[in-house]
Amino acid sequence: MVLTPEEVCAEVLERITPKQGERARILRLAEDLRRRVEEAAKEGGIEAEARVEGSVAKDTWLRGEPDIDIFLRLPPTLGREDLGVVGLKIARRATLGFKQVERFAEHPYLECFVDGVRVNIVPCYRVERGLWLSATDRTPFHTDYVKPLLNERLVGEIRLLKRFMKGIGVYGAEIRIGGFSGYLCELLILQYGSFMGNLKSAADWRGQEIIDYEDHYKGRKAELRKVFGGDPLIVIDPVDKGRNVAAAVREGRLNEFIAAARAFLEKPSLSFFYPSPVETFKADQLVNVIRARGSALLFLRFGSVGAVPDVLWGQLYRTQKSLGKMLQRFDFKILRDAVWSNEEDINVFVFELETRLLPPIRRHLGPPLEKRVECKKFLRKHLGVESTVSGPRVEGNRWVVETRRKYFDAVELLKEELRDGGRSVGVADLLSQTIAKSFQVLVNEEILPLHSSNGDFAKFLTEYLKGRPRWLD
Amino acid sequence: MVLTPEEVCAEVLERITPKQGERARILRLAEDLRRRVEEAAKEGGIEAEARVEGSVAKDTWLRGEPDIDIFLRLPPTLGREDLGVVGLKIARRATLGFKQVERFAEHPYLECFVDGVRVNIVPCYRVERGLWLSATDRTPFHTDYVKPLLNERLVGEIRLLKRFMKGIGVYGAEIRIGGFSGYLCELLILQYGSFMGNLKSAADWRGQEIIDYEDHYKGRKAELRKVFGGDPLIVIDPVDKGRNVAAAVREGRLNEFIAAARAFLEKPSLSFFYPSPVETFKADQLVNVIRARGSALLFLRFGSVGAVPDVLWGQLYRTQKSLGKMLQRFDFKILRDAVWSNEEDINVFVFELETRLLPPIRRHLGPPLEKRVECKKFLRKHLGVESTVSGPRVEGNRWVVETRRKYFDAVELLKEELRDGGRSVGVADLLSQTIAKSFQVLVNEEILPLHSSNGDFAKFLTEYLKGRPRWLD
Q1: Does B203 touch chain A (CB under 8 A)?
Q2: Which domains are present in chain A?
Q3: Which candidate, B336, B319, B398, places its Cα nearest to that of B364?
Q4: Is this structure's pTM higher than 0.90?
């Protein structure tokens, strides 16, 4: 059955709009917590204001997925160190008896679970607009800015956009995702008036799209590229023209959104919002698929890093890039690479190479003949030495030599260069400490045990091997 | 013992200057043949002049290696076809009783062996300077131009340069070599005054060196690049400013000469003039050397082409380039390629690849997201088709897919694409006819039987594997 976009959106909206009872319960809970936090501050002798922020404050949350954000606005006289310490202390006291997890974004905050609902208690400074002392100080201003502009229809459009982005995997500003925050979704809907309006525009975004809802840069768009450099999407924060709300959005995520928008406009379907679950490969399937590819899948596995997710993922991505570059520097051709982590005790890099083994000799281009001094140096270096397998000789207008490679086996290369942690080849600090202790390099089906024992990894690997977003199926 | 350049040159000169007796004998023989050719023409009723040209006429030949060139200057009224027919008839009659071989450059000529000396009888038109009708018409003018400018010292310098070029393998304008002609050597010595002067200058040649001994282009050098395009060395013919005497010199040969000149200046030695013979690899050595390289040596062998050398080598080189490009188009990485021929019944291309086998899948970059129409086409082409192994998906700012390769085995690729002669992949006509009948693709030590049975090939292959000019040793 072919559905119209309107029919699909209506169906989704029906599913994601909180029912009256749920909404009332969450609002009550939020207000209750807000009061407790404020009281806990008062008891601690701190003059502070607590506010409900985020999607609950703006009524833009999705049914069944409420996240209550309580912001504790502390006096600017508090030092940066104290903000976290004092904030956490108050938050802990306010939620005594519930499950509490200390988290860390730019500074620490407390995550706890109350009646099955996730609650984040975030300390920030009570500053005037523009006089930001910490990254979270803007949040109350965001709420105050957006709320008066919304109505029931717009709130529905925002929910649709969020669900769409969650469905295609681009929702979330955390480093692991590098996608779209809730606030960004709200601004997009304000800008384009509706979910479909946003998709239609996004389908035609090209290059560095700029959205400046408050016209902060009216007639001065050229300035923006200087201020925000290479950010692939620029959405000026209405409450702070110096901030790109889309700063966290990586190019790939942005383009996945664009591609999915086009696909949805062409063939609307519920599956964008609710992708069918991944059917992970069984062991024998996995082995067959890997063998049929004929490439060399190298898995670099190591253990716990002991860092909060944003730090961990930052280091994982950075290291992925460095190790990829290193492999290429030694002439290994990368088909694709990826990284997976359970954010606890298992981290896995995947490097898929054209071939694991290169010939032991390597063609090395020397200087052109016209550079006489360099030619002399080149000859002195390569003539009659053990590493020279063939040559040197003149080819066309330059000297050429074939030399023995340092590494012709990619597994050898990884093992050798990572033995000391690999800091010199660009492994990030915390990862390096873990890797220096121990790591494994597994090739092709040697990954089977992990695949069989860890469902999340199996899902990741299956999706990797298919290499295709589910909404394309 | 370290020799000075002067000592080396004196020693070489001693060896290459014809003794009085040999010179007298050759001159007598040349004059005798000249007269016979002229008489044979007269008997045939053709009014023609025969002249001794080339190194014998100018006394620039090397001891023990005389080549007598007799030019038969025929009336311009003769048609282009007739020039060869008539010329050959006369030449045959004049050398009746001696071994005769019909040869072909731009038009046919007769090679014969008289008293162990090679004699070329070349028909040309008796034209006035500048009114050239065939390529060989200039030769008598070259002789007339050069002869009065020479003296005994210069003749010696020319002989040194020729021997040097022969020693390092860059002497000869035929297509197989793509090097320096005798006339070009003479002009170089006129320009630089001496062998050492030439080497010193050549050592510093860079880019497109221009030599214009008669100053035909005084103050108009820029024009030259238009007239002679990309020729790596431009030596204006004193008797024809529209001709580059060095037109046949390929970039590689030129640079080998430059490199050898530098090496000789740094460390003079007889071995530049008289390289020590190649010690060909024995069978077991060959196998070891090939195995140690770890690359994939593909030998494409086929039989007689039935073409004169210049045509054969032209087609061989052209085809080498085309097949190399084809291999690269299918992602095989060429370390080096080469071609060998006995100019009779064995022709062999060598393609040395990093690996013979590629993974069966290939990463295929699609269009960037901003090209919306192309993206749609790309998805239509690759989504859900059998050849797609993984993807399509968005990476950075473009679509990417992994598809199954048409060929992942280079041997398979060659066998398949050459089955019909390979004209469509750029195999030259005459070669294609031979290849269509039969050819072999041999890998690594499968070449052993040819290596063991053909000394010339063994020498070629040994030098190829060493990949280093002998004068560098």
Answers
A1: yes
A2: 17-137 (3.30.460.10), 150-272 (1.10.1410.30), 283-357+408-472 (3.30.70.590), 361-404 (3.30.70)
A3: B398
A4: no
